[in-house]
Amino acid sequence: MKQIPFSIQKRQELQDCIEKVKQEARLMRRVSCVMVSIFMDTANERMLMEMQRTISASFPEAQIVGAVSTGEIVNGRLIEHNIVVNFTLFECSEVRVMSYDFRQMSSEQAGKELLAILNADKNVAAVEVISAGFHLDINPFFREVSKSREEIVFFGGLADDGSLGQNGMVFAQNTNLRHGVAVAVFSGDKLHVEASSSFGWKPLGRSMSVTKMDGEYCLQELDGQPALDIFSRYLGIANDEKFLVEALTFPFYFERHGVVLARHPRRCREDGGIVFGADIRQGEEVRLAYGDPGDIIENALVLQGKLASFQPEAIFVVSCVARWMLLGSDTEQELSITRDLAPSSGFYAYGEFMRIKNGEIMVSNMTLMTIGMREGLKTGESPQLVVTPPKLKKHRSIMAHLVHFIETTTQELEASNSKLKRLAQLDRLTGLYNRGETELRLRRMMKAARLNDHSLSVLMMDVDDFKGINDTYGHAAGDATIKAIADILRASTRKDDDAPGRWGGDEFFVVFYDMDQKVLQEVAERIRRKVEELDVLTEGGKVTTSIGVVTANPEDTVDSLCRRVDRALYEAKRTVGKNTVVML
Fold first, then answer.
1. Global pTM?
2. Exposed, middle or buried: residue 388 (CB in 10 Å: 0-12, 13-18, 19+)?
3. Once rounded to an integer, what is the mean pLDDT over residues 47-66?
4. What are the distances in angstroms from CA 374 to CA 222, 412, 579?
5. What is the DSSP annotation of 321-361?
6. Banded pLDDT at 134 (limits 50, 70, 90)
């Protein structure tokens, strides 16, 4: 397998490139397939058609795919205002290129057609998808193809014509599309593919909840406020002609299925809603994010080691245009990670496509993707690379220090907020949950128990004759008694499954999630016995407690469950005669 990328300015230079490729092809044992990727910064369809004809004349079976793009990548270097033509020669693998026009078929139908192709070929190793159309609804397409075998690697991105927000153009063979996808399917029993990604953006400020969406792509409200307010209040970015450029490097940052994702704005509507190129879901917690140039480059350098150990023969690269906008003249430090490993080629996108561990194919932003390919097994030891820390240009070095200041103050703010939140949840005397937090956890655990068909039980207890303890031994002894009982509850409950709290005064409340009835009775009895064994009062004074326990019925509400456990406690204290456990 050989990859031979070129950067040319005129179509006439293409013939010289083709002759060089023919020479390389003669040195190979055989050529089973020729794939040609073309990336260019202007949508000159006539020139593109002439290039396609020129390539096909020399390589009649060549599979041609590509897009109009804002920036191109060749051998670890950024290419602007040129045409990138990348020839990939396979010895024993095949590539099939196809296209789907979303004006002629639905996104979902296109996904089903591609899925059928992938399911019919057990040797498919990777799929490249390049889309055009800023308002393209690609999610149904990806939902269908996500049903394919999880080991198939997906990569690619959203192409743009360089005008920041307009439809781009993709091409496959002799078809050019401005509202659809071009797809390349890589297949071979000896074809190995390794995909890696680098992010590097960091969360900034507080977490906000998505409270209102208009469809999958338009974020209308965060914490009940217009989404635009976040950009105008915290970043001074207004809804004007500069909105996209200024907001592009400040995406929203969140996690989904354990994967960090980012969403950068596409445009802002008059009503303050912000339109994104990938979906955001109501209820998700998001934060603004910022990029530290040093960290972004260092994170990218980690990919270098992964690629080196894989020993690729060809590398495909897809990177977010926002990384280029942020790094500026330092961009090539990031791209250089591929230079000493294998020939590389790629483009800058406005949305990067990636597959996560559960098989779902997702759209991300602000991501650098590297896809290494080789035919056959590794040969010998992997090259030893010397990783050089990034050296930023002066103005970016200053920005890096400012970013470090932001990061540190953000971390300190998070720690303070976390401490305040924790204090608001706890009872100051005992360290158990206070009543408000206990009630909140009861509601959540009751809902979870019903969804998962698990049991939920509650325990309510109070100290027998607690007023007498205060009157006889003093309030300090009363406080010591309360704290000692809190320690018993902590030791008698499960850290992750139960919720012990102080209900008020000398009353305590415990929520037990999915506990067997026999075990529940043993736990309640153990708590009663441990309280009876306490030695916190002088002159041989004894502490006892009365306990009521109930298990929720299907028709129970939180209020009815609290009334029933209160009645069980009443029976333990008034009917049975204190220092006992009553289970209803």
1. 0.70
2. exposed
3. 93
4. 46, 46, 74
5. HHHHHHHGGGHHHHHGGGTTTS-EEEEEESSEEEE-TTS-E
6. low
